[in-house]
Amino acid sequence: xxxxxxxxxxxxxxxxxxxxxxxxxxxxxxxxxxxxxxxxxxxxxxxxxxxxxxxxxxxxxxxxxxxxxxxxxxxxxxxxxxxxxxxxxxxxxxxxxxxxxxxxxxxxxxxxxxxxxxxxxxxxxxxxxxxxxxxxxxxxxxxxxxxxxxxxxxxxxxxxxxxxxxxxxxxxxxxxxxxxxxxxxxxxxxxxxxxxxxxxxxxxxxxxxxxxxxxxxxxxxxxxxxxxxxxxxxxxxxxxxxxxxxxxxxxxxxxxxxxxxxxxxxxxxxxxxxxxxxxxxxxxxxxxxxxxxxxxxxxxxxxxxxxxxxxxxxxxxxxxxxxxxxxxxxxxxxxxxxxx
Length: 340
Hints:
By secondary structure, the protein is an alpha+beta fold. The chain has 2 domains: 13-95 and 289-322, Phosphorylase Kinase, domain 1 (2-Layer Sandwich), CATH 3.30.200.20; 101-283, Transferase(Phosphotransferase), domain 1, CATH 1.10.510. It has helices at 49-54, 58-70, 101-106, 115-134, 186-189, 197-212, 222-231, 242-251, 262-266, 269-272, 292-296, and strands spanning 16-24, 28-35, 41-48, 79-84, 88-94, 137-138, 147-150, 153-156, 163-164. The chain has a 5-stranded antiparallel beta sheet. It has a two-stranded antiparallel sheet with strand order 6-9. The longest helix is centred in the middle third of the chain and has 20 residues, at 115-134. The chain is globular and about 55 Å long.
């Protein structure tokens, strides 16, 4: 089987064999697909133009593409390209062949991950979030379903809610209500101004869940959960070491000025503990998929690099029309559902 990339001027849906559905979001679905020429697995996110227009989300979609395609880090899922037809917009993503963190937790009794494994998961998650914050990007939807794994490596995914800190009015603080309730910070719940520490809070919630099998502020009703989040009221995890408990406490501080940053988190003694060597790959749930990078002629992730290259040396990232769109010229995407 050839492992060389197919050379083409643009990408179309016909270039892929679309398989089973991997997931579903607010206005689109994600499918397992393979590039027809190379037979290499990818994930194809299919978004409805009609839904995007109806919900007035075209600016959010363009932001998602711009920010996600910019990111080049080992622990961030790569967006490879985007293209469109008359009714849909397609985002071509690296395929995370080992599922998500929620799936992994489900394999353990009472969804409790052993601490040595939890530490490595959190270390990689903090590395991904630190990279985003260093580039003034907030993810704003960190949760187990958005933490994927590929060949033993954690991949932070889904940039639907990602935003640049200084995008509007020159401010570094936001007030948009977004994300998933159990993982929201007090400042978002109270609709106050927020910035990078809101992601740190979500990392703390995920860390707690690795030990206890459920988020720390989970309650039967929405108002009760919001009250507990706002007060920062949680019991220390009973199945974590003292260092891990301290790590969680440092992240789940209501005062954003006292909350630990990702730089500080990675220097915390709990994540610095190297007494036990462990690899995430020991928890592989599926056979390894063929390497998308080999077929699409991409190098290994480089956290210091700029925006990613196109799929190969000759392909442009465009719709089935003029072949002029680029990762940072997203206004060329026609959102009206008319024939191209």
